[in-house]
Amino acid sequence: SEDAGLEFPNQGEIRTGVIASISSSQILVSVGAKSEGVIMGRELEQIPGLERDAFKVGQEIPVYVITPEDSSGNLVLSYVRAREAMGWEVVEKMQESGEPFEGQIEGYNKGGLIVLVHGLRGFIPASQISMARRSMVQGETPDRWAKMISETISVRIIEVDRARRRLILSERAANPESRQSIKERVIDELQEGGTYTGRVTSIADFGAFVNINGADGLVHLSELTWERVQHPSEILEVGQEVKVKVINVDKEKKRIGLSMRALQGDPWHEKVEKFKVGQLVEGTITRLTKFGAFARLEGDIEGLIHISELSENRIQHPKEAVKEGDTLTLRVIRIDSEQRRIGLSLRKVDSSSFADQDMKALAAELKEEDKE
Question: Does the reported pTM lie above 0.70?
Answer without folding.
Answer: no
